[in-house]
Amino acid sequence: RPPRSTLFPYTTLFRSAPMQVRGLAGEVEITLDNEGPGVHELVVLEQGVRISARAEFDESTSLGKIPLLAPGASASEVFELDPGEYQIVCLIPGHLEAGMTADLTVE
Question: Any bridge partners for residue 32, and if so which?
């Protein structure tokens, strides 16, 4: 069966402010379109976990990820998400610190 909600929240251009996106609880498909010049990834963190630097990341708080993508590539992953607030980050060194993060609200 298809996911209940499909999001395209995360194009990989650096932003001056975190991106905010919304989705419906259940199977949520997230697509990463790498529009940047370098490699990127996408990691969804557990509810309530917030980080602002790669050094703060703990693998046990990851709900899953879209692994490294080359420039111009796109990939999707389905996550089983309950209602709540989630942080999505790029953990390539320096990227999170430069603002590559999104706040995901699941209803």
Answer: 10, 75
CA distances from 90 to 50, 76, 93 (A): 13, 15, 9
The pLDDT of residue 2: 62
The CA-based angle 94-97-103, given to 5 degrees, is: 125
On whether the CB atoms of residues 90 and 42 are closer than 8 A, the answer is yes
Residue of 57, 49, 10, 15 whose CA lies nearest to 29: 10
The band of 82, judged by pLDDT with boundaries at 50, 70 and 90, is: very high
Between CA 106 and CA 15 the distance in angstroms is: 22
Token code pair at residue 42: 């996408």
- Say how many CA atoms lie within 13 Å of 13 toward its Cβ: 3
Q: Which tokens is 103 given?
A: 């706040």
Structure confidence at residue 75 (pLDDT): 87
36 pLDDT above the threshold of 90 = no
